[in-house]
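Reviewers asked in the last cycle whether our approach scales beyond single polypeptides. To address this, we selected a multi-component target totalling 752 residues and predicted its structure end to end. The input consisted of the following lines:
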Amino acid sequence: MTTLQRDSRTGGPVQGPPARGRAGSRLLSAERRSRWDVKFSPYLYISPFFVLFAVVGVFPLLYTAYVSVHDWDLLGGQGAFVGLDNFARVLEDRYFWNALRNTLSIFLLSSVPQILIAIWLAFLLDTHLRARTFWRMSILVPFVVAPVAVSLIFGNLFGDRYGLVNEILQVVGLDAVRWHVDTLPSHLAIATMVNWRWTGYNALIFLAAMQAIPRDVYEAADIDGASKFRQFLHITVPMLRPTIIFIVITSTIGGLQIFAEPRLFDNAGLGGSDRQYQTVTMYLWELGWRVRDLGTAASVAWLLFLIIIVFALVNLVLTLRIATSGGPR
Amino acid sequence: MRHVPSKSTAALAALAVLGAGALSSCGSDSAADSDGTVTLSVATFNEFGYEELFEEYEELNPGIEIEHRKAGTAPEHQDNLYTKLAAGSGLSDIEAIEVDWLAALVEQSDAFVDLSDPEVEGRWLDWKSEAATTPDGKLIGYGTDIGPEAVCYRADLFEQAGLPSDREKVAELFTTWDDYFETGREFVGEQPGTAWYDASGGIAQAMVQQIEYSFEDAENNVIAADNPEVKEVFDTVTGLSEEGLSTGLTQWSEDWTAAFQNDGFATMACPGWMLGVIEGNASGVEGWDIADVFPGGGGNWGGSYLTVPTQSEHPEEATALAAWLTAPEQQIKAFESKGTFPSQTEALSDPVLTGSVNEFFNDAPTGEILAERAEAVEFIQHKGPRYADVNTAFQQAIQRVDEGKESPDEAWDSFLADLERIR
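The resulting structure, written as structure tokens, was:
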């Protein structure tokens, strides 16, 4: 074996095999290789993230775009190039707009109360409680439960005829609610599942951020005679601004992609007999895996991607405003 | 001294590991081990009753190991199957499929091994194997079970309503759908708190299955919109729901499951595999029985096949296993284990089957009754590639009437609009 050994600083050979035959060209290539090392190795070290992102992030995105401009059967594969026909079909389909409305409704019904309750919960957990760690850990329990299990349990609770929630309502003298039939009640039931699962998780993130707020600010407020509620409103909330923005953006992304809970709310998975609670991702799933029209499904995926970007930006602007007004500037 | 080149080697190696990690998760796990053992993976859903059979096969065939991948529900299995078929890798050596997906899969027959073999010829009921045969004579699936339909009923509720409750007498009550609905009107007249049948969708499904070309014609054109027979089923079922014969629930919903425990309804169309479902949902409820009759003649609801995807690395071994699993002797064992009713002609006259009684259904001779029902099936409904989409839209339209969201006329119009979406 003829291994090349080089001085590590200069890159030149210190000792090598007898210079015979193609040794000259070998020297040249060794030098070139070492120059490349210096130039490109740093990029290699930071590459794993970018490679992974390219493989599981950028590539699917671009490939989805490619699929979306073709006739593409799930089983049959690629067909003819159809340009923007798939997008036009989706935008003309009333079920797409229906799904979009449902998604926004479920998103608002879940995200808004969820974030408000999470901040309030975190504020309570931040006070001097007995067995603090126990309480803090236990609010995370719903998050650990699999969404499928959550859907099954809540699906039972929200049964239209024999469900527990309706039985309680009737005991109190109220009318039974048709949770699976009427639009708004079905959205409320699904939002309840989402809230149950995510409120504790968000509360813990808020709690972590709250603990970074200097205690002397509160002490000063105490001395000034500010009530706990005023402290919460005028100190805690404004100082949580970056965290609030983070949570709003992540729950926007999550909320607009909601799938498991409404998908499992009935058995057919199309969101009720009149698609009362079909969300955009369920609509995408229906097109791709039931109608087996992957091209159109891909165009829905891209539309959803664009919608999420728009919403994330709008939310960013809104939360920046809300968090600045009223707080210390 | 060599650390400069080795650094880049390390980085490259790290990349290679990452890449390999990402790739290996999509690869097939079935491969011959160094000692010559062949591992065959078998993907099924719900209950096929194969657990003990796998052990038996491993004992009979040293060198074969079976890995069972069992999905909880058919849709879950279907999503997995379609995705991996589309991706071209990752399928098991044997994939179970449901009869409703067959037409779409026959169109992709290149993805499946041709299983036709003189040895298995004549093994199944004609219509069972014909459905899995491509136009050019290729057999893509071995039949497992079928779903011959009988009527299951609550003998105790029949008695309370003054109807005969003995299963021979009940079988004489209704041989046509008209008789069945007329008896239903009589029943709900006496027992207003209980519906006659479990779900409009189930009854509509049973009636549509008795029309050979209902949703699609022989060339697979969607004809549901113009088919008077389909319209008649729709009008009948939605009209009856307004008369209070139906629970108004959808099958498999939580309320439907709960209705078994709440005297929600008195009868239901029951294919063989439904017996286990009823026994599970109605556990503790006494009075269930089964009558050797089905309104309007015979009917088949459901049933499955075993296929060998061409992706399999061991197609020969997999074919042998699939053939063994679907042989009459083994299907009888699966029937004993989970009640899946055999599609093999020989198994239908097996004394184990014909002599079997079901304790839950008042010791009814279920094997004999269902074998009779299977004989009564003269043809099965033609199901083309768009069958499932049309059927879903049809069922949803009926459901909208049940839920009071639309009148029957509105629901029919919106069904027609849904059909426009289905290409």
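The first strand of chain B starts at residue 38 and ends at 45. We regard this as preliminary and will revisit it once experimental data from Aim 1 are available.
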